[in-house]
Design brief:
disordered N terminus; alpha+beta; Alpha-Beta Plaits
Length: 149
């Protein structure tokens, strides 16, 4: 029963988050495509993961926002802890203009990537480390649900 309650709470939070994220987007609501990316980090490494995410992954996402592939990127963490089996440390919500954009290759060129990260060796090591300290990662495409007629 606790597992169901945790799952339902996560589902309800996702629906509310999608509605909020989609309300801020520019494209038509029926076209937007929202994915929530969940990260469960090895205990004690949450700050390290967050720092590496901001340093190495966020600039790439920001470049995709600049190029129009992504409309919005937000990141949240839980205020309080839950059960270990339902724990997640970070949820990144990405709003795409449509489903095709979500599945298209990144528009960030190799030259742009080199300008963002001139030390490619350090970038690769830090990205490898970011994934080494993950216990779990899952992606959840979500849809808004109409609560009222």
């Amino acid at each position: 029963m606790a597992r169901f309650a945790a799952g339902f709470t996560l589902f309800a939070t996702s629906v509310v988050s999608a509605a909020g994220a989609q309300g801020a987007a520019v494209s038509a609501p029926q076209d937007r495509f929202v994915i929530e990316y969940y990260y469960k980090v090895r205990w004690g490494h949450q700050q390290e993961f967050f720092d590496l995410f901001r340093k190495n992954h966020l600039p790439l996402l920001d470049k995709e926002v600049e190029k129009g592939r992504i409309l919005e990127v937000t990141m949240v963490g839980p205020r309080h802890h839950g059960t270990e089996d339902g724990r997640w440390d970070y949820r990144v919500t990405i709003v795409y203009p449509n489903v095709a954009a979500a599945h298209a290759p990144s528009p960030v060129t190799e030259a742009e990537r080199r300008r963002l990260f001139p030390d490619s060796g350090a970038f690769e090591r830090e990205e490898r480390r970011r994934f080494e300290i993950l216990e779990a990662h899952w992606d959840l495409p979500i849809i808004p649900l109409r609560l009222r007629p």
